[in-house]
Amino acid sequence: NVTLPDSVIYVGKWAFGYCKDLSIIKIPDSVTYIGAGACFDCYNLTSVTMVVSHNHHALNISRGHQEVGLI
């Protein structure tokens, strides 16, 4: 599980990509950008908590051939 601190404002491309054991991620209000594929192929990811009022680039969550994009 990952809880980003309030000091984080940027999550880079592929930051958590291919982290097979990641199940929960909490992204604070301070984050204003999430790079493409930040959670790509995180098969065990069951919960993402974040504020969606910002212009996040993309949070891609892939399960097999299904992909969900939060933009």
Task: Write a concise synopsis of the structure shown.
This protein is an all-beta fold and about 70 residues long. It has strands at about 1-5, 10, 25, 35, 45-50, 60-65, 65-70. Strand 6 (about 60-65) and strand 7 (about 65-70) form a beta hairpin.
Task: Characterise this structure.
A three-stranded parallel sheet has the order 1-3-5, with no helix packed on it. A two-stranded parallel ribbon has the order 2-4. With 71 residues, the chain is mainly β. The C terminus is likely disordered. The chain is built from no helices and seven strands. Strand 6 and strand 7 form a beta hairpin.
Radius of gyration: 11 Å
Strand count: 7
Query: Counting H and I runs of at least 4 residues, what is the number of helices?
Result: 0
Uncertain regions spanning at least 5 consecutive residues: 64-71
In order across it, which strands form the biggest sheet?
A: 1-3-5
The biggest sheet, with number of strands, parallel, antiparallel or mixed sense and barrel status, is: 3 strands, parallel
User: Which term fits the overall shape?
Assistant: globular
